[in-house]
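Lay summary. Proteins are chains of building blocks that fold into shapes, and those shapes determine what they do. In this project we predict the shape from the chain. Here is one chain we studied, written as its sequence of building blocks.
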Amino acid sequence: MHQAAASRRNKSQPRHSRQEPRHGARMTLAERDVEESHPAVGADGEKECEATWQEDGGDGESICESFRLLQIDAGCDSPKDLPVRKEKWCSRNVWRKHRHWERTVTAKKEKRKQEKERRRANRAEDKGAAPQHSKRTAKAMSRERLLAAREAGPRLCVDLSVSSHMTEKETSRLAAQIRRLYGSNKKAEKPFWICLSGFVPGSRIYEECFRMNDGFSRYLVDTAPESYLDLFPLETIVYLTPDSENVLQEVHPHKVYVLGGLVDESIQKKLSWREARERSVQTARLPIAEHMVKSANTKNYHSETLAINQVFDVLVTYYETRSWPEALKAGVPPGKGYVLREPAE
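And here is the predicted shape, written in a compact code that computers can read:
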């Protein structure tokens, strides 16, 4: 009887009162964690819990516990948010990529350092051979030479009136050749003055020159939509074509050497030569056959037709050296199938 009554009294008691000692231990641990990780939240949370406990008549203690646990969970959404060293959460793959990046940066720095030392050594070797000029000084000197050639030097005219026979791809290649020609002329000690005739605004070659060549509007050249026949006296014009019977013997400073602006991948034979003959213009060819011989090659390919920048390299080298073998060696590429003749013993 007494045991049954005691059992009934125990069952009638609230469940939370039986768990109070263990519950109190949990609260103590929760408070310690909150105060260590979030001191401000722990202090405010304690006051709020006390107020809630007083209003609810003691049942608010469980609410207080839930609130504190909620604050702890809200502060740590994931394990990565815990106050642990960041390196421990990086994967092995991330560290491997980071080490590879560091090695790459170190190698590039070392390579730049070696290249800088190499250039410094080369400048030291060439210091006695030729004076070194800054880019600004070299540009000013090149400009002076070009302007002097405009007054007294030989002239080279690129006839662009025949560019209408070319495809779009050939026109782009011609614009690139004009850029190389102008670059060679700027570097020459005795440059030519360059003129582009038949350069009609709005034409395909006009658009390609401005599209492909940076700074084309600042080139020190003359451009004109007219024909070269309207720009120069007929007796001063020499049209250079590989189909001419006349051999070019000399480069005169008072002559105008005309090159047909034509990249002919479809091999329209003797096009520039026929047009020059129809206009009674003197023609000439480079002395390739007189100073060079055909070389043995697997393709059995031999051609005396050169790009306009290659022809110009021959002319400007001869004008400086007065040596046709040296000029032809500088301008005729090996792919044309010709080599210089062996000197006679």
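What the prediction tells us: The radius of gyration is 44 Å.
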